[in-house]
Amino acid sequence: MIERGVCISQSVKIPREPKTGEFDKVIRRLRENPNARVVIIFANEDDIRRLLHAAKKANQTGHFIWVGSDSWGSKISPVVHQEEMAEGAVTILPKRLSIKGFDRYFISRTLENNRRNIWFAEFWENNFSCKLSRHAVKKGSGLKKCTNQERIGKDSNYEQEGKVQFVIDAVYAMAHALHNMHQELCPGKVGLCARMDPINGTHLLKLIRRLNFAAEEGGGATPRSLNITCNYKHSINPGVCLRAYKAGSKRVACGGARHDAAVAEASEGLVMNLTGIAGNPVLFNENGDAPGRYEIYQYQIQNQTAEYKIIGHWTDQLHFNVRSMQWPGGVRQIPTSICSHPCQLGERKKIVKGIPCCWHCERCDGYQYQADTYTCKMCRFDLRPNENHTGCAPIPIVKLEWSSPWAVIPVLIAVLGIMATLFVVVTFIRHNDTPIVKASGRELSYVLLTGIFLCYATTFLMISTPDVGICSLRRIFLGLGMSISYAALLTKTNRIYRIFEQGSMSVSAPKLISPASQLAITFTLASVQLLGVCIWFGVDPSKAIIDYEDQRTSNPVLARGVLKCDISDLSLICLLGYSMLLMVTCTVYAIKTRGVPETFNEAKPIGFTMYTTCIIWLAFIPIFFGTSQSTEKHTLHCTAQTQCKLLDALQAQPFICQPDGGMNVKNGAGGSLHHSNRDTCSVCGARSLNCAPPSGIDVTPAYLEQASKSGAVSETGAGGGGGVAR
Predict the structure, then answer these.
(1) Locate the G-protein coupled receptors family 3 profile domain: which residues (predicted)?
(2) How far apart are CA 130 and CA 652, in angstroms?
(3) How far apart are CA 719 and CA 655, in angstroms?
(4) What is the pLDDT of residue 41?
(5) pLDDT given at position 24
(6) Which residues contact 465 (CB under 8 A, 6 or more apart)?
(7) Strands annotated E in 422-488
């Protein structure tokens, strides 16, 4: 039934002898699932009547759609006084034909000519509402004494019982089977012989099933089969016309020895074609069942008149007139009877245990899709469910767009930084031969500005669409700019530290403080970064990937795949780790040189820059690891770089404020070398610590000469390394 789309919500048994209230319990059980409205009844007519009455008491008129078996059929007794409850009921009856010969016979029966039927007297009393014995008639009972003059069909209503033709066919099937058994076991004898006393029931059943085992005459018969057609349609008496076939020869007789011999000779392959009293063939299939021929009725109420109407029939297949059907309340639309409503798209059925036609609908949520009626499956990692969760669709690919706020802010800062860096470079070039620029250590200053420029330029690489080329450039320049910057600053602070440390211990100049030595040290430190990047390229070549986990949200609608370079967070920290090492080392030297003379304003801006840079990086690292999305990580990284470089750019301020520089040196005789500084800072717009008029520092001519020879003449700003006052 399930394969045909029909299933049973629940099955309820009616006890053989139901107690009071038993049918009320049955109705309560049927009401447990209000969506299942069709009730198929296999019960006798009395139980059907009581079940309808219980449903009427429960106020379920019009709710249940009853389907009755042939025990209900077209009977009036189950529906009397509860017609509205039974309205719309569909019942069946075996397809029948009224046998006129039986009617003639039955209505002629009287108490005088039908004494052989021991139940006929009881039928007579019930049919005519009388009593055969005067003593059985009680006053006030409304009964009378039978006169024996009553006649069936004249003094009472008479309608032929619907199963009469089947009883007649069954009797004749049994008779022909017994006849065949007699011909087989007792050939040429009259009456029962010893082989049929007692009768073998198994053998008799086998002979009954041989009645037209093949549907057509001769069909399915072996060469030794014998087909016999017996037709008694026009007579109730057993007048039989026999037709025998044997090995292709035809022998016909109506009784007699010739036919009997033929039957006995071919009894092993006997096949009987028997035409029933109604003209239908009497036959049995391989399971011993007769073919079903049914008429389908519906109990309808029209114009306040209730009656059974034929709406179809079954003869090998269903013939149904849906338009002639009418449901409770006169409704023509076919009612629905389901245990559970169909699930929506994207929902799976979860069958209720023990009730295969009842289920709960469960939504395929998250990244699941409906694989079939009962299963939800996860979409592939690069897919997400479509809108109704019936399939999967590709996850949209995104990248950091130039128009995104996460890109605009770093780009704006980078552009301003590049402009400021180029402005400083131009200023240095314009005043390249001034004393203060010369004293600042021009070479390291240009290296420092180059590193700052690379850091700003890396911002554009971080925002560009990732591919193999962009990813390779990111690896190279992401840490290179900072390595160059911090290598230059480390060389500067180390030089200052060694000059003052050596000066406090000896008058001899420290080693490796010449410009060439400083450049060699700086490029050596920076080359370590390049070496690490080259090794990284060899171990893990650059490539662009789509990361589906970075923005895999709980809501698949918001899920995105991020196009990015294949650089893990750990790899990025390792890439920047060397720059961080240089930064920390530079900070240590900045701390050590914090006690230099106040007028030597080289170390203090470097120290301020390094302290601030360390604080920024200490905040940057945990925030970077705690941020899930790549765009925010890139923004944090770009912002950290640009902020650090803006702080580094403060070192160039004195060159802009005092491009001509100045020295104020007193000799031992009270003379002095003095350069007045009355100009204000043109870039800063106001006097600052670095732009303030110098207060001068007195040194002996001998020390000045020695310091100048050793290259220890200081810049008055943050550009280079030296240790002399203005």
Answers:
(1) 406-630
(2) 135
(3) 8
(4) 95
(5) 94
(6) 399, 563
(7) none
Q: For the chain, give every residue range classified as CATH 3.40.50.2300.
A: 2-95+292-330
647: how many CB neighbours lie within 10 A of its CB? 17
At 679 the three-state DSSP class reads coil
Q: Phi and psi (nearest 5°) for 372?
A: -155, -165
What residue ranges of the chain are covered by domains with CATH 1.20.1070?
Answer: 405-709
Counting Cα atoms < 13 Å in the Cβ hemisphere of 442 gives 14
SS3 512: coil
Question: Beta strand pairing status for 270-275 and 226-231?
Answer: parallel
- Helix-, strand-, coil-residue percentages of the chain, each rounded to 5: 40, 15, 40
pLDDT along the chain (726 residues), means of 10: 74 89 93 89 93 93 92 90 93 87 91 90 88 74 83 86 84 88 88 87 86 40 36 36 36 37 39 66 75 90 90 89 88 85 90 80 93 93 93 91 84 88 88 77 85 87 89 88 87 83 68 85 92 90 88 90 84 82 87 70 68 70 60 49 49 52 39 35 32 34 39 36 34
Residue-level pLDDT at 96: 80
What six digits make up the tokens of 95?
């397809």
Question: Under CATH, what is the fold of the domain 2-95+292-330?
Answer: Rossmann fold (3.40.50)
611 and 589 in contact (C-beta within 8 Å)?
A: no
Give the single-character DSSP code of 432.
T
Task: Write the CB contacts of 567 (distance below 8 Å, at least 6 apart in sequence).
Answer: 471, 474, 475, 575
Distance (Å, rounded) from C-alpha 489 to C-alpha 642? 17
CA dist., res. 473 & res. 438, Å (int):
34
Q: Return the C-alpha torsion angle 237, 238, 243, 245, nearest 10.
A: 160
DSSP 3-state assignment of 304? coil
Q: Is the peptide bond before 396 cis (omega within 30 degrees of 0)?
A: no
Task: Give start and end residues of each alpha helix (H) in 650-692.
Answer: 653-657
Residue type, 518: Q
CB 242 within 8 A of CB 270: no
Residue 58: CA count within 13 A, CB half-sphere: 20
What DSSP string runs through 351-410? EETTEEEEEEEEE--TTEEEEETTEEEEPPTTEEE-TTSSSEEEPPEE---TTSHHHHHH
CA-to-CA distance for 684 and 681, rounded, in angstroms?
A: 5
Return the pLDDT at 49: 94
Rounded CA-CA distance 428/443 in Å is 11
- 405-709: which CATH topology? Rhopdopsin 7-helix transmembrane proteins (1.20.1070)
Tokens of 584: 């920390």
Q: What are phi and psi of 302, to 5 degrees?
A: -135, 130
Per the listing, tokens 């249940």 go with: 64
Contact 583, 613 (CB under 8 A): yes
- At 173, which amino acid appears? A
Q: Which structure tokens are listed for 410? A: 């770093």
Per-residue confidence (pLDDT) for residue 249, from 0 to 100? 36
Pull the structure tokens for residue 343.
């699930």
Distance CA 446, CA 515 (A): 12
Q: Identify whether the C-beta of residue 370 lies closer than 8 Å to the C-beta of residue 389.
A: yes
C-alpha 495/C-alpha 712 separation (Å) is: 9
What does residue 27 show for φ and ψ, rounded to 5 degrees? -65, -40
